[in-house]
Amino acid sequence: MEPRRILLAVTGGIAAYKIPELVRALRGVGHVVRCAMTAEARHFVSPMVLQTLTGETVRTDLFDASEEGEIDHIRLADWAELVIVAPATAHTLARMCHGMADDLVTAVLLATRAPVLVAPAMNVNMWSHPATQANVERLCERGVHRVGPETGELACGWEGLGRMSEPEAIVAAATLVLGPDTLRGEKVLVTAGGTAEPIDSVRSITNRSSGKMGFAVAAEAARRGADVCLVAGVTSLSTPSGVRRIDAHSARQMRDAVMAELEDSTIVVKAAAVADFRPAVQEDHKIKKESLEGQAGFNLRLVTNPDILTEICERKGDRFVVGFAAESHDVVAAARRKIVRKGCDLLVANDISRSDAGFDVDTNAVFLVSPSGEVEEIPLLSKPEIAAQILDRVEKLRRERQ
Ligand code: CTP
Fold first, then answer.
1. Which of 153, 243, 289, 327 has its CA 20 to 30 A from that of 388?
2. pLDDT of residue 1
3. How far apart are CA 50 and CA 84, in angstroms?
């Protein structure tokens, strides 16, 4: 594995005594490690020990001018490819959950775009308390990764869940979060979500899409080390760690954002559900019903939106372009025709008539269709798993092409 830049955020629990061992284990597999500590953590492990083991200055104080002068907290947050919070106390998890930034560690955690892995450690009752459980659940929903805690004898004398995972388990979890590094050096442009085409200042027509599939592709590409730009349509999802996001709500805004980012991109994944039509006239005020009095209804004239995928494929060059297809019947036959019509290198076809795949749900089942008409069926899996399968296939086809 390539060496990666890991920021180890140490907080104030007795398990901090294991952190020197964790530093050695991370360095042992070749990573560069820097440490940041809370004031409480210094009761359990000395900054001097961590400085000696990492060979890097240990940061402890947000407001220390000389520390900030050397590497300020924003640069530290940007430097990290992964932040590990170990031990993660109940108090730290609560502060993370609420987005607090009242010391160096929480400020860095709020500022970083890197993935975050927490290794909780606390008394069994503190861990099982509904407040801690709710905080951990919310953090995980936001994409924070977790390793442990484990069951065993706790420093406080209780037995049960609450022990910090052993350093080897934390290193293994970090390796999983960091991903295989196979897309390092690549610039991946992903679109996701539906577009909304305004009728007036309050109404719009839109396509159904949660954005989950495209966001999963963006997250997986970032996990594999790519520089990822995600052009997001209408979605309520939060940005995956390590991903740069541009919001573009209408098809035309999405087209402009995509074209502005296309030049640098080496791989494009077009998962967005772009509305094919928009109202010919978009009123900048609310259309009042009284203005329609005497009329039996309201006629909306639609005009065709640009086909972004076709436009990308016309300028494809050496890029690898993946399109998606939402099909309600004859899925494979329709996808075979669509890949030829659009001119992309791979088409991911969704059967939108299924209730367990496609729109809104967390799972998907797809067909991967190549320009020659070859088809690979991917069975029902979680969207992150489908994203991994798509990128595995992209990597394989690019290797074959080279
Ligand atoms: N797409 C696009 N711009 C559009 C419409 C679609 O870039 N105006 C892209 C989608 O992001 C997707 C692919 O084209 O990658 C196929 O989208 P889909 O909705 O399945 O097909 P359409 O081109 O809209 O064709 P049809 O509605 O006839 O199936």
1. 327
2. 63
3. 15
Separation of alpha carbons 211 and 383, rounded Å: 11
What would the pLDDT profile of 235-283 be if each residue is shown by its tens digit? Answer: 999 888 789 999 999 999 999 999 999 999 999 999 999 999 999 999 9
Question: Is the CB–ligand 1 distance for residue 326 below 6 Å?
Answer: yes
| Helical (H) or strand (E) element with 65 | helix 65-70
Q: Which residues of 69-82 are buried (b: 16+ CB within 10 A; e: fewer)?
A: eeeebeebbebbbb
Nearest alpha-carbon partner for 278 in 205, 192, 194: 205
Q: For residue 396, how far is its CA from the centre of ligand 1 (angstroms)?
A: 25
> What average pLDDT does this structure show over 219-227?
92
Give the angle 80-218-245 at the CA atoms, nearest 5°: 75
> Which domains, ranges and CATH numbers included, belong to the chain?
5-177 (3.40.50.1950), 187-401 (3.40.50.10300)
State percent of the chain over pLDDT 70.
100
Q: At what angle do helices 130-141 and 90-97 cross, to 10 degrees?
A: 50
Ligand 1 atom at minimum distance from 325 CA: 20
> Does residue 305 have its Cβ closer than 6 Å to ligand 1?
yes
Helices 167-178, 19-28: inter-axial angle, 10-degree rounding: 50
Q: How many residues does the chain have?
A: 402
Nearest to 10 by CA among 35, 46, 43: 35
